């Protein structure tokens, strides 16, 4: 299944002829398979999606002119249907689940081969590089600047701008960004000893961390190119290749660890990170080249180059600084944990990776709809953008609260089932589960932050309020973490993380009325009441059920089933309404089969 610009019945094309008279007319792009009316004499206007008005009889045969440039694609100018969005979200969620499962296999392999000690602590310091690169260059950073820019370029193309604004934007931005990514990667590799010394001053084996950091520094270039390709494709409503990048990345890491782990040790994981970054670019290039070629297809005459404004430097600085501040929570955790007994960084890492799975899945819909919100604002439709963001918040909150209840209720059983084998002991399981339960308390705020910040940057204009909100949360994380790390260890650091991101989410929600997409904060908070109550009750019931069986698999199954039943009874099915359009073909399949059999 491919989530391209297909309409409800498959790819839409115009097979008829589109002409207007020589007199001035205004008409929005139409899709379909029929022919458009010919209008003459009096100027007429048609609203998007309604078709032209009644045809008039011309006094003389008009000279036909194209209604839109031959290279433009009809569906790029039309708002996507709910069925298309649901299908894209479902596809992205399925691929994200596969990537998350492979991420668990990757972490299981790391724990099995190298345990939770000096070697894994050294690698996880180097793992900070791909973590930051993914946030800054693929997800929360570069995408916030590029997707609105390409959405605006697509809007210009749909309005008949000269040349191809999309290809002009690529030509004006990609070479410069590539040079910046390459220079940053080389600088990081050269500065690896200082990077390790600043990030983890109490690390037992800094030399190993330096070697791993130099290998992972290549991710600055590869992740930057992968993020650029992903932003362009998402703006074109192509989600298959961008959603698959983390699958190939994890496959590369796992393969290299098992192939060379015995010879290279934990350095094999760092080499796998570098190889996986190259695959992330390679898997998206065919779709990107096809989109850029399609944009100029059908043009028989040379056209003047489109003037496309360069990327807004203040906007790019704002989004990158926000992403840097958000990801710096990981730096704070590892800095504080580097002074704790060996294994504390690993316990925090494993707890975070498992706990963030519900958050990642809950944000799939907003990842798909971000280009839709950006396009709505580019078209001046603020009301459509607000409705879309508010629906995204409601769906994401329900999904993440359901996942949070399961994670907190079944934490020991889940960690034991996933990691307790090889060098990962029962003591590691208990420590990681305790950290994960506290860390999960901030998952709702993490999700709200990820969804709400899109409403600030979707207009393609610089705003510094999200940076200030994130800085306030980071300050809270630093202060609380410094006070609790000595007495509570890794659990205190996880509590500081949850408190800091909760403050950020509250500030972002409060500021939307005056900046970005004007959300109705009161309605958003009222919508969270029922799923919060359902999540609390499901957590208590699930923890009691999970503690009855002695075996971890049986305990996890009992706890997860109890959480599911209680949450559904009290809070309703999370995300069911949003994904219903994508599931309609599946639900109607038995009816269609029965109709086909009875009519033969």
From TrEMBL:
Record key words, sorted: Cell membrane, Cell shape, Membrane, Peptidoglycan synthesis, Transmembrane, Transmembrane helix
Lineage: Bacteria, Bacillati, Actinomycetota, Actinomycetes, Kitasatosporales
Location within or outside the cell: Cell membrane
Pfam families: MurJ
Main localization of the protein described in the UniProt heading: membrane
Bias kind Low complexity: ranges: 12-34
The protein, known as: Peptidoglycan lipid II flippase
Annotated source species: Streptomyces rubradiris
Residue ranges with Pro residues bias: 61-72
Topology term for the membrane: Multi-pass membrane protein
């Amino acid at each position: 299944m491919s989530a391209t610009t297909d309409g409800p019945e498959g790819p839409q094309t115009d097979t008829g002829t589109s002409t207007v008279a020589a007199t001035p007319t205004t008409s929005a792009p139409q899709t379909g398979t029929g022919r458009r009316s010919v209008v003459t004499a009096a100027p007429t206007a048609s609203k998007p999606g309604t078709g032209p008005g009644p045809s008039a009889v011309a006094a003389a045969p008009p000279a036909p002119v194209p209604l839109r440039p031959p290279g433009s694609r009809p569906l790029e100018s039309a708002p996507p249907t709910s069925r298309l969005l649901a299908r894209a979200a479902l596809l992205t969620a399925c691929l994200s689940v596969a990537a998350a499962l492979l991420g668990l296999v990757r972490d299981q392999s790391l724990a099995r081969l190298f345990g939770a000690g000096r070697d894994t602590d050294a690698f996880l310091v180097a793992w900070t590089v791909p973590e930051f690169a993914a946030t800054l260059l693929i997800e929360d950073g570069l995408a916030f600047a590029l997707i609105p820019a390409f959405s605006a370029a697509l809007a210009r193309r749909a309005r008949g701008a000269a040349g191809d604004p999309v290809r002009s934007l690529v030509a004006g931005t990609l070479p410069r960004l590539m040079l910046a990514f390459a220079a940053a990667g080389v600088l990081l590799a050269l500065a690896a000893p200082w990077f390790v010394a600043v990030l983890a001053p109490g690390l037992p084996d800094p030399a190993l961390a330096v070697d791993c950091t130099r290998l992972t520094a290549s991710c600055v270039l590869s992740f930057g190119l992968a993020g650029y390709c992903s932003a362009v494709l998402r703006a074109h409503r192509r989600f298959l290749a961008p959603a698959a990048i983390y699958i190939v990345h994890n496959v590369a890491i796992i393969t290299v660890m098992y192939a060379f782990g015995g010879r290279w040790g934990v350095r094999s994981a760092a080499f796998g990170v570098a190889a996986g970054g190259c695959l992330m670019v390679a898997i998206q290039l065919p779709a990107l080249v096809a989109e850029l070629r399609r944009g100029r297809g059908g043009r028989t005459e040379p056209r003047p180059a489109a003037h496309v404004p360069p990327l807004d430097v203040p906007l790019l600085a704002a989004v990158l600084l926000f992403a840097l501040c958000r990801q710096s929570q990981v730096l704070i955790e590892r800095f504080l944990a580097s002074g704790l007994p060996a294994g504390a960084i690993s316990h925090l890492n494993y707890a975070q990776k498992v706990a963030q799975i519900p958050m990642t899945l809950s944000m799939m819909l907003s990842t798909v709809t971000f280009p839709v919100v950006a396009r709505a604002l580019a078209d001046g439709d603020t009301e459509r953008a607000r409705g879309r963001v508010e629906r995204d918040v409601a769906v994401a909150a329900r999904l993440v609260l359901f996942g949070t209840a399961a994670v907190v209720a079944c934490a020991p059983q889940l960690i034991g089932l996933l990691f307790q084998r090889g060098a990962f002991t029962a003591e590691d399981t208990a420590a990681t589960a305790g950290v994960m339960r506290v860390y999960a308390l901030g998952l709702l705020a993490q999700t709200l932050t990820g969804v709400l910040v899109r409403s600030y940057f979707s207009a393609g204009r610089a705003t510094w309020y999200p940076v200030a909100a994130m800085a306030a949360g980071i300050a809270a994380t630093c202060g609380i973490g410094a006070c609790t790390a000595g007495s509570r260890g890794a659990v205190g650091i996880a509590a500081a993380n949850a408190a800091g991101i909760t403050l950020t989410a509250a500030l972002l929600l409060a500021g939307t009325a005056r900046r970005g997409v004007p959300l109705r904060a009161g309605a958003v908070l009222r919508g969270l009441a029922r799923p919060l109550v359902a999540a609390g009750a499901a957590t208590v019931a699930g923890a009691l059920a999970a503690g009855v069986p002695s075996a971890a698999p049986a305990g996890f199954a009992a706890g997860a089933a109890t959480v599911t039943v209680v949450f559904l009874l009290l809070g309703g099915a999370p995300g069911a309404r949003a994904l219903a359009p994508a599931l309609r073909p599946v639900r109607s399949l038995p009816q269609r089969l029965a109709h086909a059999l009875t009519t033969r």
